[in-house]
Amino acid sequence: MTLKIATLVTLAGLAAPAFAQEAAPEGDAAAGETVFNRCKACHQIVDDSGEAIVRGGQVGPNLYGLAGRQAGSVEGYSYSDAMVQAGEAGLNWEAETFKPYVLDPSAYLSEYLGESVRGKMQAQRLNDQQLADVWAYLAQFGGEEDAPES
Prior knowledge:
By secondary structure, the protein is mainly alpha-helical. Helices cover 45% and strands 3% of the residues. It has helices spanning 2-19, 29-39, 81-88, 95-103, 105-113, 128-139, and strands spanning 45-46, 52-54. Strand 1 and strand 2 form a beta hairpin. Helix 4 (95-103) crosses helix 6. The longest helix has 18 residues, at 2-19. The radius of gyration is 20 Å and the shape is globular.
């Protein structure tokens, strides 16, 4: 009888993680800097005074101040109509919106807007840890919401 109880307790302990909701990984800004090397082909980080923090492409918008920013709102960048519409409908960049968007931008915008749309950005192949890391890296540059405390 004791062996049966011990076996059940052990099996329950082994199965518990499968039923527990997996917590999002904690982001590491230093590791995110390395992940951002993939992003800078299209994006740069330039502060409000015009100083380049990270030089990169200009195909995508400047990512300075991304955390807490309304989607589709960088002055001078030509966004897709879908991105502007999503921003006007209330889409703001925070970890919970950024991560699924990066994985499949058009699908995310389509779901957010409730209609089939296309964004300009291509889907990126990043795992959960890389997404958390690049978010932690970007959130430290001029953003309001989700920015790490100093």
